[in-house]
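Lab channel / #folding
Pinned by the channel admin:
"Please post every new chain as: sequence first, then the structure tokens as a reply. Keep commentary short and put observations after the output so the thread stays searchable."

First post following the new format, from NK:
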Amino acid sequence: MFKVIEISLQTKLESFSRLLWQHKISHRIFPVEEAGLQIVAVAKAEQCETVRDLFGQWQRGEIAPGDDDSAVLAGYVKPGELTGSFVRMFKLAPLTLLLIASCCVLLWLAPLAQPTALTLDMLYPDFSFGTRQIVLSRVLENFSLQDLLGMITPVLLHGSLVHLAFNMMWLWELGRLVEIRQSTLILAVTILILALISNTVQYLWGGGNNFGGMSGVVYGLFGYIWMWQLFDPRRGIGLPGSLIFFMLLSLVIMTVLGLEMIANAAHLGGFFAGVLLGAILGTISRIRRATAATGYWGN
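Reply from TO:
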């Protein structure tokens, strides 16, 4: 926040605050009791001068808030604008939004914390068939389309609102980037591959099939984008260095801590799968572009 105005606590600023909201200026008013002051601060530096001008006009009685209560949320954010924004986002990243919506609905219909029949149906298949020993020949004999879907669907399950919110935030940031810069089809195939690998790694090394969450895919998308940035930066898909550092650091910390409630095997499996996939495709893309530029296709 940026401090704009200091004024006595005796001055009533409710009317001025309503005026700022009606001008769609996000702000806060902080009382400083020991100094006998209150501070008006805004979220954006470029709004400081506007706020000072409005304050001067308000003090002189030249301007006042309108009769309509635009200080409430409905007045500050118009439903029509929200609908338009959602439509624009859906056109740009339909798969990402559909996945987020599906995960939100399934948190209610199929929560991991309090499993329902649907939760159990969407868990990773138990290929040990209750024996705690996987026999590949037996798995292949009994393998079905339902088993294949079950190897993917755990990424849609979450255990809590916090778990869901964290994963959906990163899915929106990373999934949207791939979908916009490459295509919806590429994102779909990438997510299917990452889900299969991260879930399978978690099942084999995590000690059971009672797990779920999109975080393995999220770390896979991070690795995928990072490799494209390294191997073919001209494609315009990449991440800021600070975000790369944060994601790597969080992965290391969670792996070292080894907490039981965190699917570390899925994180690592997804990450290394994304790194491999991104490195291969990024390299192929760079070679193709270089070949096309020189016009040399070999013998």
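NK: The longest helix spans residues 264-294.
TO: also worth noting, Residues 49 and 232 are 44 Å apart (CA to CA).
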